Amino acid sequence: MCGIIPYNCAKEVFAMPTIEKQRRMDLRLTERQRLTYERAAALRGQTLTQWATAHLDESSARDIAEASTTYLSPDGFDAFCEMLDSPMPQAAKALLDRKAVWE
Fold first, then answer.
1. pLDDT tens digits, residue range 2-22?
2. How far apart are CA 25 and CA 53, in angstroms?
3. Do 51 and 44 meet the contact criterion of CB atoms below 8 Å apart?
């Protein structure tokens, strides 16, 4: 039986389609940074561009998730759920009943 990863069942090897990249990004680095990044890329069998792009992709996804996720304590979560389950305050109902300024 095949595992979760779909490509592990393939009988043939398929190359990933080439995606044309139309944008460049130049970075100013110290010599030490450049050498460290090149070494890390080489240890992974990647070009410096491949290594840097992979790490930028991971970091950007993490930073966006951290900035757009709200974490609540167990008590805070319970209070939030209680507010969702309770009737809407009258002031909120009145606000929703008003005609929007853009209408």
1. 444 444 455 555 556 677 888
2. 10
3. yes
